[in-house]
Specification:
Largest sheet: 7 strands, mixed
Strand order of the largest sheet: 7-6-8-9-10-14-15
Order of helices and strands: HHEHEHEHEHEHEHEHEHEHEHHHEEEEEH
Structural class: alpha/beta
Distance between the termini: 34 Å
CATH superfamily of the largest domain: Response regulator
Strand content: 15-25%
Helix content: 40-55%
Number of strands: 15
CATH topology of the largest domain: Rossmann fold
Number of helices: 15
Number of domains: 2
Length: 406
């Protein structure tokens, strides 16, 4: 691989930086004219079309906004820098509204009408897992930014996950709880969908195997907003020494607010679901001291991480979160492999599968597991002075490597 190309992603992120990608990666030269005066075929200058879908409206619109912003930012930066081997990138974007039926329709459009060479999912596990088999059947690579359900990648060899598996993050959270925070009696509060189930199950398995006791488990629906009865039970009856929250920012903000107001003063450990500026805005001072597992270290010295944060804030006026960063990573991967091998879908698939030690805005992508889920360290952040900061990192190979597919 051309070493200059490897540094493209971090360099291109700098705002206002302009240079041609063709200086980093030589363009494919046209074949010499055949005998008899036949001219070489013209170089392909058509845009490279990449599909994208996210919950831009509906219950998950905040995450949809974040991922949509990141997709558009990635495409604008690559195009301002000259495109990929002289070709511009065109984003073909759809709103799935967190609806599986819409996700199916979108996948069918992308595979039959839109002439895309690859697709990025900026959506949750539900829409992503029903769309994945359609892309697999069509032979079009799909990268899931942050959907954690194992069935996503089980759809087949054209499907990849840019985030670590839910089982990985759950185990990493348990390691933080047991080893870093020395918790012995843990209460779990989880959203009763794929996200919460995957995290809670793997957290429980690791925590109980390493000396902790799960003293209560409370599940709630996405529409639930009242947690006072649960908080009261935990304070007066259960008396845990740590609360593990496997939920999203809206629920998480309300849980920490009610816990603080009712005097339940125990450490709270969350997940990437609360890795959002919305959590900080809603929870306000109640968020102070909350710890979470995620894939983005805001205090990283990685040049591309800081450049991404700076570019995102300047363009949109808000700070990026992990779902946006994960989607940005997905586009980084696609841009790199397309520059290396071209736009033929099988070549893209094979190049992604072979990618190793690739620096993204969420850190080093070590490689993709045989399950095609990303292997990378799990970041641990703490909310301090109203922002996310470094608390630790989980790098144990046995934890960050997803289990083999059944």
């Amino acid at each position: 691989m051309n070493k200059k190309l490897k540094s493209f992603v971090s360099l291109a992120l700098a705002v206002g930086m302009t240079f041609s990608l063709s200086a980093c990666q030589s363009k494919e030269t046209a074949p010499a004219p055949a005998t008899g005066g036949t001219q070489a075929p013209a170089e392909n200058k058509d845009p490279i079309r990449i599909g994208f879908f996210a919950p831009i409206t509906g219950a998950a619109a905040a995450d949809g906004l974040s991922t949509s912003n990141s997709a558009e930012l990635a495409v604008s930066i690559i195009n301002e820098s000259g495109g990929i081997n002289g070709r511009q990138v065109e984003l073909v974007k759809y709103d799935d509204a967190l609806d599986t039926k819409q996700a199916v329709n979108i996948a069918q459009k992308l595979t039959t009408k839109d002439n895309v060479v690859a697709v990025v999912s900026g959506s949750y596990s539900g829409p992503t897992r029903v769309a994945a088999p359609i892309f697999q059947e069509a032979g079009i690579p799909m990268l899931s930014g942050y959907a954690i359900h194992p069935d996503v990648c089980k759809a087949g060899d054209f499907i990849f996950s840019q985030s670590f598996a839910g089982s990985v993050q759950g185990k990493a959270g348990a390691k933080v709880a047991v080893d870093m925070l020395k918790a012995k009696r843990i209460a779990i509060i989880q959203v009763d969908i794929d996200f919460g189930k995957q995290l809670a199950e793997s957290f429980t398995e690791y925590a109980t195997a390493n000396g902790a006791e799960i003293v209560s488990v409370d599940k709630f629906a996405m529409a639930d907003k009242e947690f006072a009865p649960v908080v009261t039970k935990l304070k007066e009856e259960v008396k845990p020494d740590l609360i593990y929250m496997a939920n999203y920012y809206g629920h998480g903000a309300e849980i920490v607010r009610q816990a603080k107001s009712m005097g339940l003063n125990v450490p709270i450990l969350g997940t990437e679901g609360i890795d959002s500026f919305q959590f900080l805005e809603i929870a306000k001072e109640n968020a102070e001291g909350v710890i979470l597992t995620t894939n983005m270290n805001r205090d990283s010295e990685n040049e591309s991480t800081q450049a991404f944060i700076k570019a995102y804030k300047e363009k949109y006026g808000i700070v990026p979160d992990m779902v946006g960063a994960s989607v940005y990573d997905s586009f980084e991967v696609l841009f790199k492999v397309i520059a290396d091998v071209g736009t033929e879908p099988t070549a893209i698939r094979d190049a992604i599968k072979g990618l190793k030690n690739f620096e993204t805005v969420t850190g080093n992508l070590i490689e993709y597991a045989p399950t095609r889920e990303a292997i990378k360290p799990v970041q641990v952040q703490v909310i301090k002075d109203g922002d996310f900061h470094y608390y630790g990192v989980v790098e144990d190979t046995e934890i960050i490597t997803p289990p083999a597919a059944n």
